[in-house]
Design brief:
The structure holds two protein chains of two kinds. Chain A is mostly helical. Chain A has 19 helices and two strands. In chain B, 76% of the residues lie in helices and 0% in strands. Classes of the chains: A mainly alpha, B mainly alpha.
Amino acid sequence: MEQIQTLNGVPLKKQIARALFKQKMRALLLIAPLLIFILITFVIPITDMLLRSIDNSIVSETLPQTTTSLETWDPKSAQLPDEATYTTLYNDLKQAVEQKNHTKLGTRLNYENSGMSSLFRKVGKDVSKMQASLSYKEQFLAADKAWGDLKTWNLLKLYSPEYTNGYFLAALDMKKTPDGIERLPESDRIYLNLFARTIFMSIVITALCLLLGYPIAWLLANLPMRTSNLLMILVLLPFWTSLLVRTSAWKVLLQQQGVINDILVWLGMISHAGRLELINNQLGTLIAMTHILLPFMILPLYSVMRTIPPSYMRAAKSLGATDWTAFWRVYFPQTIAGIGAGAILTFILAIGYYITPELVGGTQGTFISNRIAYHISSSLNWGMAAALGTILLTLVLVLYWVYDRIVGIDKVKLG
Amino acid sequence: MNLPIYASTGQKVWYYSFRVICGLIFFFLIAPILIIIPLSFNATDFFTFTPEMLRLQPEGYSLKHYQDFFTNGDWQNAMRNSLKIAPVATLIAVVLGTIAAIGLSQSHVPFRRAIMATLISPMIVPLIISATGMYFFYARLGNYMVDSLGMNANIVEYIKIVLAHAALGIPFVIITVTATLVGFDRSLTRAAASMGAGPVRTFFKVQMPLIIPGVISGALFAFITSFDEVVVVMFVGSAKNKTLPWQMFTGLREQISPTILAVATILVVLSVALLVTLELLRRRSERLRGMSPG
């Protein structure tokens, strides 16, 4: 069979392939600047944070010789390391003290075992007094009895490797011990509870948004265009209003001396002394966040409901269905896609919220995000912040993937 | 939608109670925003309506919180910072975003889904995580720029925030511009090309005027994202770069002052203006693409 050729004698197939390739390259060339920009300004910083959650190089960098010599030490022997290990510890610490790194290491190890910070701060002075002519082991033991405690050495050995799962274990209320991984005692568990609370409250917020958003979306989709466009403003205005403005509005309204309590007192529903505590607790977070996220539920629901022909409901009713059956068996199933889209979007946004819980949540209404912020700016335990962040991010990315499968990320509607 | 004449009593009751329920939900949506407007004219420092205000006596009202906003150095500084950061971040987001959106809407794009997911991710990733990542990375980037490139520390601070905000605004530009491009008739560019216009000329003379409403609404989204953003700027920026939302956040967390209500009212007016612009753009876009305006 003869091949079809173009005017200049090239097989047509080849020519088409070449044109297609050119087209693809042109598209990529247009996308490239932005992709590189996002990679540098966004993707790399986040990857960098993820790595921080397992990074533990500080121990082996500050005590390079000690960590090497501890490799041969068996914690199960129940005996202290030998003189040689103490000598390497002395050498390492001497250098660390010169570079003033020993306190940083102390802070790092203090996350695993409180008391380490003061031990390492103190050792700076001790090391300068030690003499080469005497046994370093005895001098260390004399300086602080913690150096003769197996626990200290176990800790050093456990955290010798350059990478650790320690932060992740801590984020899941667990702890490394020489005998393996253990759960923390009941009284010290905080993070799992916090994750559970964050997820639970996000679910409640999503459910409230669905409950309030569904009727509104239905009304907007079924009213005549002119009226529904007008009412749409009532949904879009909050959507466009600054988050801080909405949060401050709630902060003002929900106060004990605020407008809502005033009205309730005036109506005689509560007494002057019995003003309700509506803010700085979980209730405050629920109310404010439902209000803030409601538009994100209404808009996807609305765009799905708009496409449902009203004749379906009429057909169902003419076939003898009651109002409820027609709604439940005919209309509702067609809105599932919108419910999925709105619910996932609302949930994703809720679970990572920081500002609103911080301002109206008090101590009981805060989320995991608030804990991350605390670790970054107050406790300075950055590894822990990174580990918590990684867990949260994984959760969100899984939902993002589901969202992309169900709705398609390029079909997000804005306004 | 209207109640048929043959409706039963139960249906009538439901019809009206449903409207009442919807009314209450609309009230829930809009009332908190509207109520701060009269409260911001309060003559006292309380956050509730005083008896004078309820009796509509002029003594109950004053502009003193607005006066405070316009004379207080902290607030003015914050306002200036916000206005310095947002437009530049928007410009970067719009230029890069529009070009990329045109690339993405070509008929053959390899890895389209993955690229799209990456470009939209700044909108989905929780802000606190973006802020954490940027905090570490940008600190090093900033140190590098100051130490090795010898740049001015103040300018570096500013660049850091602008870059971060541009990244956060990009998903909105991508979404709005690709949405406009869906309705774009490709034969128009071909027609332009067949009449001898180069790609650049085709872009500016044919494509750009048609997608401009999408570009502008993307720009408004990017602008409001930057203008309203507080988490990232708190982590990446320094106290010198305090923006308006940051100042509000501090105000709300520490000593809540009624000036916040005045600021909030001004911002509500701003969002009303944005909303109106956006609606006009939407209508124009639909007209341009031959759809009937709603």
